[in-house]
Write a structure and sequence with these properties.
Elements lengths: L1 H21 L2 E11 L5 H11 L3 E6 L5 E8 H13 L6 E13 L7 E3 L3
Parallel strand pairs: 2-5
Antiparallel strand pairs: 1-3, 1-4, 2-3
């Protein structure tokens, strides 16, 4: 009985460690260039981020781009980066997307994903 208890405890601890390791959190800043203003780009970015369970923000800039920050599980951040590079809103035309300050984080800085006013 004691052996079973020890094995169960070790297995549970290992499983919890594995789940935590696969759920590493990432943060990245982004800026998207092209026809991304006046085409509901921020609205669709917010919807996609929420669908992927990401937090952060986005906003229009005075130079005609959309910039922001994403935080969440690493795989979901990667998926969102791909979406920002290739998809965007239906009427947008993305020329390029730049990503900076990509790093691992231990906790979220934001409670949800918001659209900031310019």
């Amino acid at each position: 009985m004691i052996r079973l208890l020890i094995l169960t405890t070790v297995a549970t601890s290992f499983r919890n460690f594995s789940i935590a390791a696969t759920m590493s959190l990432r943060s990245v800043d982004f800026e998207v260039f092209g026809r991304v203003q006046g085409v509901f780009f921020r609205k669709f970015t917010k919807q996609e981020a929420e669908k992927l369970g990401l937090t952060g923000w986005c906003m229009n800039t005075s130079k005609g781009t959309v910039q922001g920050q994403l935080q969440g599980p690493a795989g979901n951040v990667e998926n969102m980066m791909h979406w920002l590079r290739t998809t965007g809103s239906p009427s947008s035309k993305i020329d390029k997307a730049e990503f900076k300050n990509e790093k691992d984080i231990t906790e979220y800085s934001f409670n949800d994903f918001t659209i900031r006013k310019d």
